[in-house]
């Protein structure tokens, strides 16, 4: 072509894409459309020889991975099915429990037996028996401090979990293992919901045919272990589905046992603090919440300091979790919970036991109802008696002595105002030495001899012969009583004989008025035990309880009428106004004339004024009483009265070990005086109703002494030398060696009539 100089004219593609595109086309072989460039030769790679060790390691790891994946596929294939089956079982179990759960109101009181609450003479609570239930209280009505203390102590995640806390269980297992216990021994990691499930015994009701007692039933319900934990899970889930959190807390607050016979927080608050659970403050709430761990161990009535230490731990938890500010926590620690007067004094324990015994069992010891008993107890007098006894033993009895004592204080009508059955305040049901111990009365029996004499017309100014006496006892031989000091005083007045507690005049008067008359007077005044039939009756060889003796002396104070000691005024069911049982004791039939009682009262005032009971003298108060000490000083008594109260004191050993250097006019008189001084605080002295006899001239001979014996049908005694007038007296000769042996033997079995 012209003008081309032999060159090919540029193609359109060349003009479009430029020379570079044309070169590329040319390099592709001239490049027509669809042509491909020749393949580019790959660079020559250097071959590297493979390490046999690396290959082996890779192969081993591959094998292990394959095995792991193999078993994983098996486990996954089986595991999810097992998990699904477990979930199904748990779900069905939870649904079953859900369908069985009743309304909350039916679960709050789970007791099978009732309780007895006792009120003193002013209507204040002083004692409880059985498990007390304070009535249903809802969780939103209790003090916020109490609600927060329980949650902080028992289950801090209570409001966030669904009934079971895996985190809590894992933490509990870790703690148990670290302390050397089994995984589920000790801390169980239970939520409050699980604890409620346990309190409900997983829905198993108490059946008296299956369980020996309610205690055995509850002990089984509280058992731990893996299987019990497993069963708790669906029950707890069912409760979470059935009830709200507030309702679960309500069940917990009402069913938890909190020591000292208190079931539920309302009962515990009343028991320990004398207030409702809605009124407790932070320190009181902490103490109550602390009881949940070990109710009996941390009960403040058992050990107040231990309970306060536990409460401080709870206060720390409440502060840590934000329920209390630092200042509130410090305030709670600085002002620890104080027990109520009734809980702190623990008064009336022995008295309460006696009252429980005096009522019918189905309304007291075995009651299935909640019972209220109004009693005669005066808590001020009870504290006075307890304090006086404690002080005398601390100041006048050698340390470590195991000697025991008992005290009874009552009004003239037999209403018991205070009772101390032993030196130590012990658990309910302990041996009560005031009501259960039958002991020889010694010379404390002598007022009944002179009561019989006064009723027959004797005068305190009459005379009696205090000279040696031997009585022939049928079947036993001669019996020769002696005075405590082994001395004889000759002719003395009856008043002098009583105030000096002379034995021989007591025997002479007994034989003169007749033993049967003395037995009758004593039994009608309230001495219920069998009274001795022989002449030793006069020396107090018969047995009686302190309550009987104090009641008998009350008959002298009230003018000669018998009294039946009583402590129960009325018994009613809680919530009822009509009493089921009323007072059964009080003043009964007349035993001796009023004049005789007032003459005897005068004689007994002289015992304290100038006789064996001088240590019982009350400054500013007129008092009457009598000492008593039995053979070998195994028992020592002092019983007496003022115009306001009668009090009796007994002292001795439970095993009949003789007291060392103790007579009725010693420590028992000291205790009596201390009791009566405290009992009469705030009262105005009142004179005793007594008759002072006209003095008489002493007789010149024994023929003028009023000791005429009453003939005895049994013939079990006779005078050694009866005189012509019918009077009788012993021969003045000293006893022979044989008689002395018989006397000593009979003395061992016949008691002693010491002061």
UniProtKB/TrEMBL annotation:
<keyword id="KW-0328">Glycosyltransferase</keyword>
<dbReference type="InterPro" id="IPR023346">
    <property type="entry name" value="Lysozyme-like_dom_sf"/>
</dbReference>
<keyword id="KW-1133">Transmembrane helix</keyword>
<keyword id="KW-0472">Membrane</keyword>
<feature type="domain" description="Penicillin-binding protein transpeptidase">
    <location>
        <begin position="406"/>
        <end position="644"/>
    </location>
</feature>
<comment type="similarity">
    <text>In the C-terminal section; belongs to the transpeptidase family.</text>
</comment>
<dbReference type="InterPro" id="IPR001264">
    <property type="entry name" value="Glyco_trans_51"/>
</dbReference>
<keyword id="KW-0378">Hydrolase</keyword>
<dbReference type="Pfam" id="PF00912">
    <property type="entry name" value="Transgly"/>
</dbReference>
<feature type="domain" description="Glycosyl transferase family 51">
    <location>
        <begin position="131"/>
        <end position="318"/>
    </location>
</feature>
<keyword id="KW-0121">Carboxypeptidase</keyword>
<feature type="region of interest" description="Disordered">
    <location>
        <begin position="689"/>
        <end position="741"/>
    </location>
</feature>
<keyword id="KW-0812">Transmembrane</keyword>
<dbReference type="InterPro" id="IPR036950">
    <property type="entry name" value="PBP_transglycosylase"/>
</dbReference>
<keyword id="KW-0645">Protease</keyword>
<keyword id="KW-0511">Multifunctional enzyme</keyword>
<dbReference type="Pfam" id="PF00905">
    <property type="entry name" value="Transpeptidase"/>
</dbReference>
<dbReference type="InterPro" id="IPR001460">
    <property type="entry name" value="PCN-bd_Tpept"/>
</dbReference>
<comment type="pathway">
    <text>Cell wall biogenesis; peptidoglycan biosynthesis.</text>
</comment>
<protein>
    <recommendedName>
        <fullName>peptidoglycan glycosyltransferase</fullName>
        <ecNumber>2.4.99.28</ecNumber>
    </recommendedName>
</protein>
<dbReference type="InterPro" id="IPR012338">
    <property type="entry name" value="Beta-lactam/transpept-like"/>
</dbReference>
<dbReference type="InterPro" id="IPR050396">
    <property type="entry name" value="Glycosyltr_51/Transpeptidase"/>
</dbReference>
<comment type="similarity">
    <text>In the N-terminal section; belongs to the glycosyltransferase 51 family.</text>
</comment>
<keyword id="KW-0808">Transferase</keyword>
<feature type="transmembrane region" description="Helical">
    <location>
        <begin position="53"/>
        <end position="72"/>
    </location>
</feature>
<feature type="region of interest" description="Disordered">
    <location>
        <begin position="1"/>
        <end position="49"/>
    </location>
</feature>
């Amino acid at each position: 072509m012209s003008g081309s100089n032999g060159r090919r004219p540029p193609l359109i593609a060349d003009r479009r894409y430029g020379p570079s595109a044309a070169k590329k086309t040319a390099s592709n072989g001239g490049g027509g459309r669809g042509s491909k460039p020749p393949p580019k030769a790959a660079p020559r790679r250097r071959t590297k020889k493979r390490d046999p060790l690396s290959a082996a390691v890779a192969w081993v790891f591959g094998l292990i991975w394959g095995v792991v994946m193999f078993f994983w596929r098996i486990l996954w294939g089986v595991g999810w099915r097992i998990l699904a089956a477990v979930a199904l079982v748990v779900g069905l179990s939870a649904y079953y429990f859900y369908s069985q759960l009743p309304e909350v109101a039916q679960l709050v009181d789970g007791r099978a037996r009732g309780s007895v609450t006792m009120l003193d003479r002013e209507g204040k609570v002083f004692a409880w028996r059985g498990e007390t239930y304070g009535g249903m209280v809802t969780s939103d009505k209790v003090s916020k401090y109490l609600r927060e203390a329980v949650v902080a102590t028992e289950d801090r995640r209570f409001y966030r979990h669904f009934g079971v806390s895996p985190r809590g269980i894992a933490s509990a297992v870790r703690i148990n293992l670290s302390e050397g216990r089994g995984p589920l021994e000790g801390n169980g990691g239970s939520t409050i919901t699980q604890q409620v499930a346990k309190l409900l015994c997983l829905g198993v009701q108490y059946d008296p045919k299956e369980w020996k007692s309610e205690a055995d039933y509850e002990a089984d319900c509280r058992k731990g272990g893996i299987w019990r934990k497993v069963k708790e899970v669906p029950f707890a889930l069912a409760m979470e589905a059935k009830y709200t959190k507030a309702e679960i807390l309500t069940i917990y607050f009402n069913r938890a046992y909190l020591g000292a016979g208190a079931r539920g927080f309302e009962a515990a608050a009343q028991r320990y603090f004398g207030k409702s659970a809605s009124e407790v403050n932070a320190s009181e709430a902490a103490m109550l919440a602390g009881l949940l761990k070990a109710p009996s161990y941390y009960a403040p009535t058992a050990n107040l300091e231990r309970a306060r230490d536990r409460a401080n731990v709870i206060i720390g938890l409440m502060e840590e979790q934000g329920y209390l500010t630092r200042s509130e926590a410090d305030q709670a620690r600085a002002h620890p919970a104080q027990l109520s007067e009734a809980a702190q004094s623990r008064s009336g324990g022995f008295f309460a036991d006696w009252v429980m015994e005096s009522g019918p069992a189905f309304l007291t010891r075995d009651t299935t109802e909640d019972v209220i008993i109004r009693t005669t107890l005066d808590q001020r007098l009870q504290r006075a008696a307890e304090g006086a006894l404690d002080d005398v033993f601390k100041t006048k009895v050698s340390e470590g002595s195991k000697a025991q004592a008992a005290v009874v204080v009552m009004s003239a009508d037999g209403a018991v105002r205070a009772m101390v059955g032993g030196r130590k305040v012990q658990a309910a049901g302990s041996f009560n030495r005031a009501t259960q111990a039958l002991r020889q009365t010694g010379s404390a029996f002598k007022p009944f001899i002179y009561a019989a004499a006064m009723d027959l017309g004797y005068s305190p100014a009459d005379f009696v012969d205090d000279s040696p006496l031997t009585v022939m006892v049928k079947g036993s031989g001669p019996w020769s009583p002696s005075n405590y000091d082994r001395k004889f005083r000759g002719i003395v007045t009856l008043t002098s004989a009583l105030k000096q507690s002379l034995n021989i005049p007591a025997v002479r008067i007994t034989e003169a008025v007749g033993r049967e008359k003395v037995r009758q007077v004593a039994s009608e005044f309230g001495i219920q035990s069998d009274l001795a039939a022989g002449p030793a009756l006069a020396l107090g060889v018969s047995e009686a309880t302190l309550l009987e003796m104090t009641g008998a002396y009350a008959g002298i104070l009230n003018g000669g009428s018998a009294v039946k000691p009583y402590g129960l005024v009325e018994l009613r069911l809680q919530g009822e106004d009509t009493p089921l049982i009323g007072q059964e004791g009080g003043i009964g039939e007349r035993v001796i004339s009023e004049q005789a009682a007032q003459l005897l009262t005068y004689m007994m005032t002289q015992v304290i004024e100038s006789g064996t009971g001088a240590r019982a003298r009350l400054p500013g108060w007129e008092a009457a009483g009598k000492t008593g000490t039995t053979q070998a000083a195994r028992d020592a008594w002092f019983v007496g009265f003022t115009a306001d109260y009668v009090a009796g004191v007994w002292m001795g050993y439970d095993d009949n070990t003789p007291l060392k250097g103790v007579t009725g006019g010693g420590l028992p008189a000291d205790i009596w005086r201390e009791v009566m001084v405290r009992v009469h605080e705030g009262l105005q002295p009142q004179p005793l109703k007594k008759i002072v006899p006209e003095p008489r001239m002493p007789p010149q001979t024994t023929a003028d002494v009023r000791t005429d014996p009453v003939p005895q049908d049994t013939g079990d005694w006779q005078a050694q030398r009866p005189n012509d007038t019918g009077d009788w007296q012993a021969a003045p000769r000293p006893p022979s060696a044989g008689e002395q042996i018989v006397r000593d033997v009979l003395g061992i079995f016949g008691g002693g009539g010491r002061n």
